[in-house]
Amino acid sequence: MVMIISTMEPQVSNGPTSNTSNGPSSNNRNCPSPMQTGAATDDSKTNLIVNYLPQNMTQEEFRSLFGSIGEIESCKLVRDKITGQSLGYGFVNYIDPKDAEKAINTLNGLRLQTKTIKATVYFFCFSLL
Fold it and tell me: Where do Low complexity bias regions lie (predicted)?
């Protein structure tokens, strides 16, 4: 008889988890995050993903909300290409990593209409698979 024993690696969590999704996760491509590789730099800490935004939020309101924290290099509220309706998530890239950290500390968990937004650092990588 052959027995196969599998061990599970512990998962690192940065807040509550949920089985439902509203937009992409911050690392859903099995790519190591800079925290896992030890390669985190200030540049990697300026880009945020913001989930659970109200569907009627405008690009201008999104920029104004996050721009109240600090100077933004870019921001994008993601919309459906056909209907133009918000998909409930967006990206904000700050110039200063301290502003990104302040935005997370200030706006993460903020209640907007019927939604509670989630702002986290967005790590991305490219896979050749």
Answer: 13-28
